[in-house]
């Protein structure tokens, strides 16, 4: 038990914080790092999922390996997100409560952007749970919930861009962009699957059945337009949001934290030199 | 007590993962759909269970007592159409 | 749609007088008895005693419309109210003793099926299958058009026997005229208070597989008229999750008469191991095509003779489009029953007998049927979706004498892997038909495979497109 300069008690994990503005908290680093890794893992998961629908099966990546990888990257992503949530909660600085991880928009710190994370997390929990009890569910029920994967990813991305204090780092922006392009390409691929023939035969799998109805061309066009719109909106968001000075305040960082000496938000951004 | 693999032909969409995991008992026809080669011997039971879990469409089932199954289907063995 | 409608209009006109042939040449006969001196002086028939046996079809030639309830009662006598007790042992025993088997294609013992349904939990459901989606078959339409009260009696009796509180009659929605006729008969019965439970008439999509029992149940449960995976089968869990009896309308008509006259009476007719009578549709190289009622066990040759077989026929399609092709020589003396045809690899099926006229390429007919069957699957199971069109292509190549590669061995290979791998027996039936065509028209097949025209073409009297192959219905029209 350590008592901090401002009188608060800390479990001891905050011992390193006792020095005040001596450096960023390891918990904060952990939260940020695990968040980034989770995003990359989710990107790979989505890509592998679409590859599954496309029945990709090569010597290098046989079907069962691809399927197993999809499962494992998703589980790994959940593991990283668990650490991401825990470290954010345990870090006493931002005062994020555990409930904020599952109840959207309930945190004091950047409620909207953190709330997006809660939404993504909730969706991921639903995906995880239904997949674990898959054999007890009907295929239709499991599949309906699984569509949430496509919704979860963009929400997670915007959570990272909005909440993340590293959003200005160029390497991270590049990484985000790369992930967004991969997911965008995967979704476009998925939209095209229903109208293209695979393996020289038409394989009318249930997930591909949409291709057989007359209006599918419109659905595909709308989907592709949606992907393009999302990518565009993300670029607009990043350039008018996180990349602009004063974002931390606009994003909802509590005023008490904005001008403190604690390594976070502005001060930290200044430290890494990424501020513009 | 024998183990048998059963395919739900409507759920099956020819992913072929089952044949990858259990090539001794499952082979794919020229269109990618599985053909079951026989009952599951005890030494392949674990592999069969993995194959069942691996099916993305949940179309593969392991049936434990084929005798019961035979009795159930005896009543409609050769049913085609028309009642 | 208009093509199908016109075709059905044509069919209806046929029924309105000429289609039923049976007793025309003989005049009135008491049911079950035939005066030997009145028989057609044909050696073969006199020798075997085979002829038309008018039980279901009694007095059909008198009028070209449905028998009214009064006429029906006068003709057959009253249907005594059987004990309204579930699993009525008396009734089920009678049906079992009569040896009645299903007339829809599977020839399954009727009493066994009824007992299974009666033994189920909760009130049962009876579904009468009047769909007759087999293009070559006309017996069920004829029966419903001429003697609807026999079928309705049968439904009533079956409902009592299995303890059903609900009854349905499924008809094809392309036969509006038949639906109207049946509804009128039901209205008569309602007025007379003839039935314990009412019969709900339904009009279903007219696909080939829509008359399969799980397809009927699925549709009645609010789904598409496509077969479903089993288990459970309808007798365990069907309409509304209740034990459901699905029977062909002809089977139910026989049940109606067994309930009146008993098993011993039923078995008075029947020869060569068959019990009772059966309806059969005879077409092709016969001078009097139509629906005939003959004793079960009558030989195939005798039935064809009844319809006036033209001597230049050499092959016959037995059972329907899911039946089998046979050399007439081989099959002529075999009884037209399940047991009788089994050694030859055939089955009465839906009771269709089509005699292929000489000078017709059987392979071409088989190829047309195969193309139709391939398009008529419910598109649910891979082996059927891909296998049937593949075989249809192979058969078409052979029939056209333009083989690519070796269609014969391709087909033999495919025959082996398609049967039994669908949710219903549609691919099995199609494969069986195609395989029997290759077997029966083997010489033609080999000639075609060497790009030579077949023997039929040699004779220079080629006829084509004899079997009715309806235009497939619009995709998506399954509900």
CATH topology of the largest domain in chain C: Rossmann fold
Report how far the terminal alpha carbons of chain A are from each other: 39 Å
Average of pLDDT of chain C: 84
What is the string of SSEs of chain A from the N terminus onward?
Answer: EEHHHHHHHHHH
- Which oligomerization state do the chains in this entry correspond to? heterotrimer
Hey, roughly how much beta strand do the residues of chain C contain?
A: 5-15%
Shape of chain A: globular
- Tally the structural domains of chain C: 3
Write the CATH architecture name of the largest domain in chain C. 3-Layer(aba) Sandwich
Mean pLDDT of chain A: 80
Biggest β-sheet: strands ordered side by side in the sheet of chain C: 6-5-9-7-8
Percent range for helical residues of chain A? 55-70%
**Poorly predicted runs of chain C:** 1-49
Radius of gyration of chain A: 21 Å
Give the biggest sheet of chain A.
2 strands, antiparallel
The CATH superfamily of the largest domain in chain C bears the name NADH-ubiquinone oxidoreductase 51kDa subunit
- Stretches of chain A where pLDDT falls below 50 for ≥5 residues? 14-22, 195-212, 261-276
Query: How many beta-strand elements of chain C?
Result: 9
Tally of helical runs of chain A: 10
What is the compact description of this entry?
Chain B is of the alpha+beta class and 83 residues long. Helices cover 29% and strands 17% of the residues of chain B. In chain B, the strands form two sheets. A two-stranded antiparallel ribbon of chain B has the order 1-4.
Provide an overview of this structure.
The complex is a heterotrimer of chains A (276), B (83) and C (479). Chain A has 10 helices and 2 strands. Chain A is mainly alpha-helical and 276 residues long. Chain B has 3 helices and 4 strands. In chain B, 39% of the residues are buried. Chain B has 83 residues and is α+β, with helices and mostly antiparallel strands. Chain C folds into 3 domains: 2-267, NADH-ubiquinone oxidoreductase 51kDa subunit (Rossmann fold), CATH 3.40.50; 277-356, Ubiquitin-like (UB roll) (Roll), CATH 3.10.20.600; 362-463, NADH-ubiquinone oxidoreductase 51kDa subunit, iron-sulphur binding domain (de novo design (two linked rop proteins), Up-down Bundle), CATH 1.20.1440.230. The model of chain C is unreliable at 1-49 (pLDDT under 50). The chains are: A mainly alpha (276), B alpha+beta (83), C alpha/beta (479). The interface between B and C is large, with 25 and 50 residues.
């Amino acid at each position: 038990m350590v008592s901090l300069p401002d009188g608060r008690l800390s479990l001891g994990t905050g011992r390193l914080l006792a020095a005040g503005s001596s450096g960023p908290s390891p918990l904060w680093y952990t939260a940020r790092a695990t968040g980034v890794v989770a995003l990359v893992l989710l990107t790979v998961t989505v890509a592998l999922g679409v590859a599954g629908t496309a029945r990709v099966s090569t010597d290098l990546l046989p079907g069962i390996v691809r399927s197993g990888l999809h499962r494992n990257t998703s589980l790994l992503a959940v593991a990283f997100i668990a650490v991401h949530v825990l470290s954010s909660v345990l870090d006493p600085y931002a005062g994020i409560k555990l409930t904020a991880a599952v109840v959207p928009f309930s945190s004091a710190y950047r409620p909207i952007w953190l709330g997006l994370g809660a939404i993504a997390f909730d969706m991921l929990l639903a995906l995880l749970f239904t997949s674990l009890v898959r054999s007890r569910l009907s295929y239709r029920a499991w599949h309906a919930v699984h569509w949430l994967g496509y919704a979860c990813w963009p929400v997670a991305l915007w959570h990272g861009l909005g909440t993340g204090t590293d959003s200005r780092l160029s390497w991270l922006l590049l990484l985000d962009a790369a992930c967004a392009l991969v997911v965008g390409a995967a979704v476009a691929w998925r939209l095209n699957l229903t109208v293209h023939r695979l393996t020289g035969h038409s394989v009318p799998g249930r997930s591909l059945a949409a291709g057989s109805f007359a209006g599918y061309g419109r659905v595909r066009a709308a989907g592709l337009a949606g992907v393009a719109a999302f990518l565009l909106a993300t670029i607009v968001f990043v350039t008018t949001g996180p990349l602009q000075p004063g974002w931390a305040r606009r994003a909802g960082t509590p005023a008490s934290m904005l001008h403190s000496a604690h390594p976070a938000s502005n001060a930290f951004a200044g430290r890494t030199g990424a501020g513009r | 007590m024998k183990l048998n693999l059963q395919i739900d032909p409507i759920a099956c969409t020819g992913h072929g993962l089952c044949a990858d995991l259990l090539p001794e008992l499952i082979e794919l026809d020229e269109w990618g759909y599985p053909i079951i080669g026989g009952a599951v011997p005890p030494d392949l039971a674990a592999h069969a269970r993995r194959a069942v879990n691996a099916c993305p469409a949940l179309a593969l089932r392991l049936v434990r007592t084929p005798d019961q199954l035979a009795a159930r289907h005896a009543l409609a063995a050769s049913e085609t159409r028309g009642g | 749609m208009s093509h199908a409608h016109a075709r059905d209009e044509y069919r209806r006109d046929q029924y309105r007088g000429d289609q039923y042939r049976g007793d025309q040449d003989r005049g009135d006969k008491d049911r079950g008895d035939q005066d030997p001196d009145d028989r057609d002086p044909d050696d073969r028939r006199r020798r075997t005693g085979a002829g038309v046996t008018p039980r279901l079809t009694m007095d059909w030639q008198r009028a070209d419309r449905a028998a009214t309830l009064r006429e029906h009662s006068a003709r057959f006598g009253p249907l005594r109210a059987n004990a309204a007790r579930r699993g009525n042992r008396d009734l089920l025993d009678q049906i079992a003793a009569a040896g009645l088997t299903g007339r829809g294609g599977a020839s399954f013992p009727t009493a066994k099926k009824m007992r299974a349904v009666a033994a189920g939990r909760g009130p049962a459901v009876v579904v009468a299958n009047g769909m007759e989606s087999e293009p070559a078959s006309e017996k069920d339409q004829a029966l419903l058009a001429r003697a609807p009260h026999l079928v309705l009696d049968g439904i009533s009796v079956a409902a009592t026997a299995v303890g059903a509180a609900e009854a349905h009659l499924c008809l094809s929605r392309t036969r509006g005229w038949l639906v109207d006729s049946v509804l009128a008969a039901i209205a008569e019965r309602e007025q007379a208070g003839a039935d314990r439970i009412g019969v709900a008439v339904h009009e279903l999509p007219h696909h080939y597989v829509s008359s399969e029992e799980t397809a009927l149940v699925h549709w009645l449960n609010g789904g598409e008229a496509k077969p479903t995976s089993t288990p459970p089968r309808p007798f365990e869990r069907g309409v509304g999750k209740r034990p459901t009896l699905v029977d062909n309308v002809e089977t139910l008509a026989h049940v109606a008469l067994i309930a009146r006259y008993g098993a011993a009476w039923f078995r008075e007719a029947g020869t060569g191991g068959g019990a009772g009578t059966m309806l059969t549709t005879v077409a092709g190289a016969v001078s009097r095509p139509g629906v005939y009622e003959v004793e079960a066990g009558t030989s195939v040759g005798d039935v064809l003779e009844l319809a006036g077989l033209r001597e230049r026929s050499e092959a016959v399609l037995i059972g329907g489009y899911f039946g089998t092709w046979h050399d007439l020589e081989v099959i002529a003396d075999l009884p037209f029953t399940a047991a009788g045809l089994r050694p030859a690899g055939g089955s009465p099926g839906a009771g269709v007998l089509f005699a292929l006229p000489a000078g017709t390429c059987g392979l071409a007919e088989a190829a047309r049927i195969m193309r139709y069957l391939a398009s008529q699957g419910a598109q649910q199971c891979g082996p059927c979706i891909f296998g049937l069109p593949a075989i249809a292509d192979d058969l078409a190549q052979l029939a056209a004498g333009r083989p690519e590669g070796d269609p014969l061995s391709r087909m033999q290979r495919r025959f082996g892997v398609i049967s039994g791998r669908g949710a219903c027996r549609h691919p099995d039936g199609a494969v069986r038909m195609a395989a029997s065509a290759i077997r029966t028209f083997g010489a033609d097949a080999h000639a075609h495979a060497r790009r030579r025209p077949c023997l039929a073409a040699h004779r220079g009297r080629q006829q084509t497109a004899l079997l009715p192959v309806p235009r497939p219905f619009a995709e998506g029209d399954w509900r």
